[in-house]
Amino acid sequence: MRQLLCAPFEGRVVAQPDIPDPVFSRGLVGPALAILPRSQSRPIDVVSPVSGTLARVMPHAFVVQVTSKVGLLVHLGIDTVGAPPGTFSAILSQGEQVESGQPVCTMIPAQLDKVGSSAVCPVVALEAEFEDLATGNVCSGQRLAILSY
């Protein structure tokens, strides 16, 4: 099956080999791409790239379960363990149904600069692949790739 994957926010697409973390750049979790937020200074809404069930919601990441085996991880930033309080705020909770383009959380990218973390946000296919990847700049909700499973 194939499903449209939308950008979780406005920014520049980062190819998997260029993600500044070896876990994501080498595909150790799964096929990945990432987005660098366009705005670093203001809070941004992070929307779900696909429809499904929120299988996991953490301050710095969420997983949307697409089918019983296929999921999509959205990881907010790199090395965000020391992020200041308020950097991430959940809007939805684990177990809720979510539609593609629906806000799941907010993020303030500039807060990550304070602790030397990167605002690059990996999007990882779990038990799936990406096809037809977008390049360059994307808007929130714009086609990012096709999720193939």
UniProtKB/TrEMBL annotation:
GO terms for cellular component: cytoplasm. The keyword Phosphoprotein does not apply. One of its GO terms (molecular function) is kinase activity. Residues 21-127 form the PTS EIIA type-1 domain. Pfam families: PTS_EIIA_1. Signal peptide: none annotated. PROSITE patterns: PTS_EIIA_TYPE_1 (PS51093). It comes from the Bacteria. GO terms for biological process: phosphoenolpyruvate-dependent sugar phosphotransferase system. It is found in: Cytoplasm. Keywords: Kinase, Phosphotransferase system, Sugar transport, Transferase, Transport. InterPro entries: Dup_hybrid_motif (IPR011055), PTS_EIIA_1_perm (IPR001127), PTS_EIIA_component (IPR050890). This is PTS EIIA type-1 domain-containing protein. It comes from Winkia neuii.
